[in-house]
Design a protein that fits this description.
Helix content of chain B: 40-55%
Shape of chain A: elongated
Subcellular location (chain B): Late endosome membrane; Lysosome membrane
Shape of chain B: globular
InterPro entries (chain B): Sec-1-like_dom1, Sec-1-like_dom3a, Sec1-like, Sec1-like_dom2, Sec1-like_sf, VPS33_dom3b
Largest interface: A-B, 52 and 46 residues
GO cellular component, one term (chain B): lysosomal membrane
Helix content of chain A: 55-70%
Structural class of chain B: alpha/beta
Number of strands of chain A: 2
Radius of gyration of chain A: 41 Å
Oligomer: heterodimer
Radius of gyration of chain B: 25 Å
Order of helices and strands of chain A: HHHHHHHHHHHHHHEEHHHHHH
GO biological process, one term (chain B): protein transport
Strand content of chain A: under 5%
Organism (chain B): Electrophorus electricus
Largest sheet of chain A: 2 strands, antiparallel
Strand order of the largest sheet of chain A: 1-2
Strand order of the largest sheet of chain B: 6-7-14-13-9-8-12
Number of helices of chain A: 20
Distance between the termini of chain B: 41 Å
Structural class of chain A: mainly alpha
Number of strands of chain B: 14
Strand content of chain B: 5-15%
């Protein structure tokens, strides 16, 4: 008996040898003499070794021979494999765990596809929950297959309370945009004729919507959905965000008066003074990018706190008066002389410098 | 572009062999479908394919028309359709649709799918589910490695980063292992393999297994040592603004497979021109290269940049009078530089770099937050002003954003750029790029909370999940320990760079390259435990499978293959070239793709609402 069993096993191939042409045949048949099937030697075995004709279940069949480990190995090498034999839950999980420990995403996903087909959703999900790596592969697979529904069931998306507010804002915004779009599309007001819209406002982010509103609906009362004031309060926009956006829009339209008003506040005595939540050098930067003339720029350059920055920007944008005044304050005669070379001869600035240089009361430092 | 070498530097192996092998295999596969056929090529494969087999070659092998894969009905009238694609489910679904619509109108054709570099089981399943499995033949084109320069090889798999580090999908691990195996077979055997990172370890194991199963290699190595490193070991470096020339060109013009397309504004003609940006481009050696590299240093020092352009133009006119070709190329590069300068206005770029450097050093953090806020509010665009960069750098400088700052910046970001970025934030947190400080909530507290909810035996597995989620950045500590920020006392002369910080104008030594330098010096990780702990472990140093470990300075020992899993930047390549020159060795950079800050972040942003 043992003799024939040994003979049987030696007939059946040990597939761990390299053999990549398996794709067409299910099994490879090599007799112990090394000759392929269908030769005389195999025929003779059949005739002369009846003990070889055993019932199927007792033969070591190819597929059932492959443990999870061997199956995964074969899959990694692209060899023929079969997952159908893994029918018990225990076997399936062994297979999955083996695939995961092999660190091959291609194989892990293949096994997951099989498990998905052969297990109920509840059981499959339950087992996935405690296997992080397998779970992540499955999620990625679902994303690629665009199975959004299953994805949603599987995952409770990590949205916090905060995020819920953002989502709510998004819907509110969309509602408003629809209303604004409906009226503005007709483009009746003067401004739409002068500056025709390049695109619809739908689905634009909040700040873009605010910019649009500051551009086309500036000054409207807070009661209307399209007014900047309304958008500002509905979406809890900070002062900084508001000023930056309004500044951009009004500067684009060259409404220097509006720009000016943005920075006016009344102090407790009732006097108007200029205040900005962003540095004035930023304001200058934005104005300059919108081609503001020097007369406008100089008003804001003069408000810059940092002296060095103020001086360099004044020079850059040719705000001569400011430069001159600063050199005067610094009592820097040399620099003033140098700067005189940069201004136009006979101009108002030229004369002003002459005047200062001639002023005996100033105690120059150089 | 490799610079002039030391005379005693080892010679590099010839990687053009890789192109020939790939070409031959592709031709063989095309010939498996004899007769005229139309070829559909994945968009991502068009540039790499161009470097391997151009249109003429393809036509010589009976390829009639070439199409780019676009997910819409095909107009081809050919009887044989061949598809050269990456193994993506979406693409395979489209192919299945093509086959099915042909079937529906009774049209018979032959279809062949060539998956590269390999096929995935999930793709086959799609074919099976769509009922077209029997109608198509499929093959694998084992095109793993594309040489981009003498010392740069790319797998051209930009998706590696997102798939592996964000989605947690290990599909490309075996691919990376196979790429290594190929190099090992052709240019090995490797004597020593070092590495750090979870993925690096998996790739090493995959490679090792493949080598042990395969043919034994003769002892004739060209490459001695290998270093594997995960992208997420160092996120800071790719986020920094690049100031080396190729980095700049990549950031602005996008270098694809080693060449860049310069538009009319650069070429000063009305045509665009494609230029190879590698060592074949002989202009980039020595002086000229250095001049470009010190450019930004001058920017920083507020000197007028005009001088450099004039110097260069004079150089071109004088020194290269007789060399027409070089002249043309150099003019092109100067044109590119001028274009770069226009886009990066001096003041803005200076401020940008200043903020970045502050973040790296940990100074004036609150000012940086203000800077970030203003950029978000002004909705300034990619690639120079993307506020995300600074948020992320900020995260690394400290131990994460304060909850109130995080909430506020996130709200402003969503208001400026749209609600669709909600998922982007989730992704950035998932991958550990954005970390919110959790006061009072340590890892152990979370573990025990969760532990109460599930069985004991599963708590262990969840620990892994939580430790990756709560991964805190130790950049501050690492930076101090490894001295990544050079002392600002003395003048840093970029003309005579003294360390790798020169690639960032002297401000910062890239962490990844510093690690490589240190580990090679110590021949391993011993004595470096403090550092590896801060990097979350997964470090290794092993002898190659053939068991040889030679400590002598033979030529192959002085050639080190560095494999970046998840991408590497031109800045890191420059730094390694510098390191090589300093140490008398040569680094070969093997990367899953060339990346930069924009591409890195774009791959993580989910704009699907």
């Amino acid at each position: 008996m043992k003799e024939s069993k040994r003979a049987v096993s030696s007939i059946l191939v040990d597939d761990d040898d390299d053999d990549d042409d398996d794709d067409d045949d299910d099994v490879e048949k090599v007799s112990w003499s090394g000759e392929p099937v269908g030769t005389f030697s195999e025929a003779s075995t059949r005739v002369y070794a009846p003990e070889l004709r055993k019932p199927k279940s007792e033969c070591k069949d190819y597929f059932s021979d492959w443990s999870p480990e061997e199956t995964v190995k074969r899959m990694r090498k692209g060899k023929v494999y079969s997952l159908e034999r893994f029918r018990s839950l225990q076997d399936k999980l062994l297979l999955l765990d083996e695939a995961v420990s092999a660190h091959d995403g291609n194989v892990i996903t293949a096994v997951l596809i099989y498990l998905k087909k052969s297990l109920s959703k509840e059981i499959f999900f339950q087992e996935l929950m405690v296997r992080e790596i397998a779970l992540r592969h499955y999620v990625h697979y679902l994303k690629e297959m665009e199975e959004q529904k299953t994805l949603v069931e599987l995952m409770k998306l990590p949205f916090s309370q905060d995020d819920a507010i953002h989502v709510q804002d998004h819907y509110t915004l969309l509602e408003r945009q629809i209303i604004i779009e409906a009226t503005d599309k007709k483009g009746e007001a003067e401004i739409f004729k002068k500056f025709p819209r390049k695109a619809s406002i739908l689905n634009m982010p909040i700040i873009t919507t605010l910019y649009y509103s500051c551009f086309y609906h500036y000054g409207e009362s807070e009661g209307t959905f399209s007014s900047p004031a309304n958008i500002r309060s509905t979406f809890r926009i900070s002062e900084k965000q508001y000023i930056l956006t309004a500044l951009g829009a009004r500067a684009k339209l060259k409404s220097w008066f509006d720009v000016d008003s943005l920075f006016n506040t009344k102090n407790w005595l009732g006097y108007t003074k200029k205040r900005s939540p962003i540095g004035f050098h930023r304001v200058v930067d934005i104005l300059q990018k919108n081609n503001a003339p020097v007369q406008v720029l100089k008003d804001y350059v003069s408000l810059i706190d940092d002296a060095e920055l103020k001086l360099s920007l004044a020079q850059k944008y040719k705000c001569h008066d400011i430069v001159i005044e600063m050199y005067r304050d610094l009592k820097d005669r040399q620099q003033l002389i140098v700067y005189q070379g940069k201004v136009e001869r006979g101009s108002h600035e030229d004369r002003k410098i002459d005047q200062l240089l001639g002023n005996m009361q100033i105690r120059w430092k150089n | 572009m490799a610079q002039t070498d030391r005379r005693d530097a080892p010679g590099l192996p010839d990687f053009s062999l890789l192109k020939r092998l790939a070409r031959d295999q592709l031709i063989y596969l095309l010939e498996q479908l004899p007769g005229k056929k139309d070829l559909f090529i994945d968009a991502d494969l068009m540039s790499p394919l161009d470097r391997i087999a151009n249109v003429t070659t393809l036509k010589q092998h009976e390829v009639d028309k070439l199409y780019k894969v676009e997910l819409k009905p095909v107009v081809s009238v050919s009887d044989q359709l061949c598809f050269l694609i990456r193994p993506r489910i979406q693409t395979v679904k489209w192919i299945a649709d093509v086959v099915k619509s042909d079937k529906a109108v009774g049209r018979f054709r032959r279809y062949k799918i060539i998956f590269t570099p390999q096929k995935f089981y999930a793709c086959e399943t799609v074919l099976e589910e769509q009922g077209v499995y029997g109608d198509v033949t499929s093959d694998e084109w084992e095109f793993y490695l594309l040489p981009l320069d003498d010392d740069i090889i790319s797998l051209e798999l930009p998706e590696f980063f997102r798939d592996n580090f964000l989605e947690g999908d290990q599909r490309w691990v075996t691919t990376a292992g196979s790429a290594l195996r190929l190099l090992h077979f052709l240019f090995g055997p490797f004597s020593k393999v070092y590495g750090i990172g979870r993925c690096a370890k998996m790739v090493y194991e995959s490679w090792r297994e493949q080598v042990e199963d395969g043919e034994k290699k003769a002892q004739n190595p060209d490459i001695g040592n290998v270093f594997l490193i995960d992208r997420d070991v160092d996120f800071v470096t790719p986020l920094c603004s690049q100031v080396v020339y190729e980095g700049l060109v990549d950031d602005i013009f996008r270098i694809k497979c080693g060449s860049v397309e310069f538009g009319p504004d650069v070429t000063s003609t009305d045509k665009s021109l494609k230029v190879m940006l590698n060592s074949q481009d002989k202009v980039h050696v020595g002086e000229t290269q250095r001049k470009k590299e010190i450019w930004w240093e001058k920017q920083r020092k507020k000197k007028r940049c005009g001088m450099d352009i004039k110097q260069m133009k004079a150089f071109v006119a004088e020194e290269l009078k007789g060399l027409k070709q070089e002249h043309r190329l150099l003019s092109l590069h100067i044109g590119a530089c001028e274009s770069i300068m226009k886009k990066k206005t001096k003041q803005d770029f200076q401020e940008l770099l200043k903020t970045e450097h502050s973040l790296l050093e940990g100074f004036e953090i609150r000012e940086c937050i203000t800077y970030i806020e203003e950029h978000i509010n002004r909705q300034l665009d990619y690639p120079f002003y993307n506020s995300s960069f600074y948020m992320l750098l900020y995260t690394f400088s400290t131990l994460g954003l304060l909850p109130k700052d995080y909430r506020s910046l996130k709200a402003q970001y969503l208001q400026s750029y749209g609600i669709e970025h909600l998922l982007s934030f989730a992704n950035l947190r998932q991958i550990g790029l954005l970390v919110e400080q959790q006061p009072g909530e340590t890892l152990t507290v979370m573990e025990s909370k969760v532990g109460k909810l599930v069985n004991d035996k599963t708590a262990g597995k969840l620990t892994d999940a939580f430790s990756s989620l709560a991964k805190k950045s130790n950049f501050r500590a690492l930076s101090k320990r490894l001295m990544l920020i050079p002392k600002t006392g003395e003048e840093y002369d970029l003309r005579v760079p003294r360390d790798m910080a020169y690639i960032f104008s002297g401000a910062y030594i890239p962490l990844s390259c510093k690690l490589i330098e240190q580990v090679l010096e110590r021949d391993g990780w011993t004595g470096f435990e403090e550092v590896t702990r801060m990097l979350n472990g997964h470090e290794f140093a092993v002898t190659g499978p053939d068991g040889t470990e030679t400590r002598n300075k033979t030529d192959p020992q002085r050639i080190i293959l560095v494999m970046f899993l998840g991408g590497c930047t031109f800045s890191e390549i420059s730094a390694l070239r510098f390191l090589g020159r300093e140490r008398g060795c040569k680094f070969i950079v093997l990367t899953t793709a060339i990346t930069n800050s924009s591409r890195l972040l774009e791959s993580l942003l989910d704009n699907q609402g």
